[in-house]
Amino acid sequence: MIIGVVGKPSSGKSTFFNAATMLDVPMAAYPFTTIEANKGVGFVRVECVDKEFNVQCNPRTGFCRDHVRYVPVELVDVAGLVPGAHEGKGMGNQFLSDLSRADVLIHVIDASGSTNEKGESVAAGSYDPANDVRFLEEEIDLWFYGIIEKNWPKFGKVPFESKAKLVSAMAQNLSGIGAREDQIDSTLLEMNLTDKKPSLWSEQEKHAFAKSFREKSKPVIIAANKADMPNARQNIEKLKGQFPGKVIIPCSGISELTLKRAAKDGAIDYVQGAKDFKVEKELSDKQNQGIEYIRKMVLEKFGTTGVQEVLESAVFDLLGYIAIFPGGTKGLADSKGNVIPDCFLMPPKSTALDFAYRLHTDFGDKFIKAINVKTRQLIGKEHELSHRDVVEIVHGN
């Protein structure tokens, strides 16, 4: 799974990315601070299963605190997007290429309305952030349409014998944008294009297909950044009214980054996603003023900085992923003595066989059976797993 962090220049996108990953990528209020895609690792929280077995886990990756597992996810921060990106304007071609493998997009917007469509500073509240929500998705939809149109001769005029062959051909030719057969299949069904030959599709149908397919293959969550600034709260409420079908989460990337850095220095006790923090050592007046501002204007008003909620909503709500723990009925430790060392994020409707392949190709190829470690019941290879299942895979040699 790859999470793409997108947005226009100077929206606070790189600050959000740094806050989520604790990487020091360049941050500045001018266009194209991010010239090449930055990659990093963030974490999503899962209630750990260790307490159900009265043990303490030892994660191989990520960490566990108070029986809350922090599972790593990959993030990509790409160059700021400007209108006309699908035509190659700005860093458009590179931007869209960087996003081709992303499974979900976090669109960071300046909720305060203090940057215009080009990422230039303007008076706070003078720009409508709803414009950013519309233009980014329009740009990506047009990019999708352009790729579909470019590949149209490869499948648009070929007389396929069945829908399955059409879906397979489309997935193969659109693999550059991460197309999956199930997404194409469901889009054709939704658009009532299942039984219509591609050669007979109208331009309107092509555009509609591109938009619907993009919504399935690259869903977007809105990170309403700079939520503590003047006008932001009113703008966020307006956005929720204008885009009722979208997930819009208030956040402050700079607040999360500040708290994490203070925690790293030992100044405060804070863990990502927490509702508050505890001061651990004496701070200067300026430092104390800064973190107390965050406590009052961000944590008390919004509950958290919002960064963690954005990540988790992207993974668990938009993508519907589930967390699965490998384990055994005879023990929960690996050969090195690490207890419940792994936690895997799996797509929705993943089966026991899917999980076996995720662990190792040989486990899938030589699959015999699986066991639900919590209930000690046998499960078949087609059994759909549930969030926080602990599964043992039994395979041949």
From TrEMBL:
Keywords: Nucleotide-binding
Keyword tRNA processing belongs to the record: no
Pfam families named among the record's database cross-references: MMR_HSR1 (PF01926), TGS (PF02824), YGR210-like_G4 (PF08438)
Signal sequence, renumbered to the chain: none
SUPFAM superfamilies: P-loop containing nucleoside triphosphate hydrolases, TGS-like
Gene3D superfamilies in UniProt: 1.10.8.470, 3.10.20.30, P-loop containing nucleotide triphosphate hydrolases
InterPro entries recorded: Beta-grasp_dom_sf (IPR012675), G_OBG (IPR031167), GTP-bd (IPR006073), P-loop_NTPase (IPR027417), TGS (IPR004095), TGS-like (IPR012676), YGR210-like_G4 (IPR013646)
Domain of life according to the entry: Archaea
Gene Ontology cellular-component annotations: cytoplasm
Entry GO MF terms: ATP hydrolysis activity; GTP binding
Domain named OBG-type G: residues: 1-271
PANTHER family in the record: OBG GTPASE FAMILY, OBG-TYPE G DOMAIN-CONTAINING PROTEIN
Name of the featured protein: Redox-regulated ATPase YchF
Naturally occurring in which organism (per UniProt): Candidatus Iainarchaeum sp
Organism phylogeny: Archaea, Candidatus Iainarchaeota, Candidatus Iainarchaeia, Candidatus Iainarchaeales, Candidatus Iainarchaeaceae
